[in-house]
Input
Amino acid sequence: MPAPSLDTALRPFDTLVHERMRLGILSALAVSMPLSFVELKASLRTTDGNLSVHARRLEDAGYITCTKRFEGRVPKTEFQITDTGRRALETYLERMEDLIRLTRER
Output
């Protein structure tokens, strides 16, 4: 595969995906979904508030969906990545791969 051009590799990243916690959420949901709030929080080793804030940003952008329901009397929140979110993650990863390849080949 030919190396990308410098202009291509240095285009701005999707800042919504670039933030560490949001990238972690999208990556986790891309390989394992749906994930409950508890599962996602444990895998990312974060707090309830931090996960809620970042998940809301991704949900507002249409990158993930959030479903809330009760199992008996226990509330359960589940997240899934959307097609839009998966495309955003794939584009982000391709851009990172281009940047890494360009950096290593020069």
Summary: The first helix runs from residue 6 to 9.
